[in-house]
Design brief:
137 residues, alpha+beta, Thiol Ester Dehydrase, Chain A, 5-stranded antiparallel beta sheet, 3 helices
Length: 137
């Protein structure tokens, strides 16, 4: 993941995040990266509630390719990184990682689809596209 282009969010592992072995339960990494994506779009100036209210547009996860590399444990401070990989007509692909002091514990490629109120794929609106993938100068 390109360091300069990645959004970062820090979180702490709580007891509720762990299993009987004291390590983060595998499904909780999906929650961690969901929070990372939410904070990424918020940092770009996108309020998802306003987007839905004004345009009917929402994001839905279509596909997740995940690799669990090393366990996180109760009390660990983790960093979730999120970086845009690709944006298409209605599809957004992001790369995400969960790190502990720079060590990669989990990585995923997440494919999102932009959906309209009818539940069908909808094109990413131009103003939203500009915020997610600003043109390079």
């Amino acid at each position: 993941m390109t360091e300069s282009a990645a959004h970062r969010m820090t979180l702490r592992v709580y007891y509720e995040d762990t299993d009987l072995a004291g390590i983060v339960y595998y499904a909780n990494y999906l929650k961690f990266i969901e929070r990372g994506r939410t904070e990424w779009v918020r940092a770009l100036g996108v309020d998802q509630a306003v987007l839905k209210a004004e345009t009917g547009i929402v994001f839905a996860v279509r596909r997740v390719e995940a690799d669990y590399l090393r366990p996180a444990r109760f009390g660990d401070e983790l960093t979730v990184t999120t970086r845009l990989q690709m944006i298409g007509g209605a599809r957004i692909v992001v790369e995400q990682e969960v790190l502990r002091t720079g060590e990669r514990l989990f990585q995923a490629v997440v494919t999102l689809v932009c959906m309209g109120e009818d539940g069908h794929a909808a094109r990413v609106p131009p103003d939203l596209r500009a915020k997610l993938a600003p043109p390079l100068h």
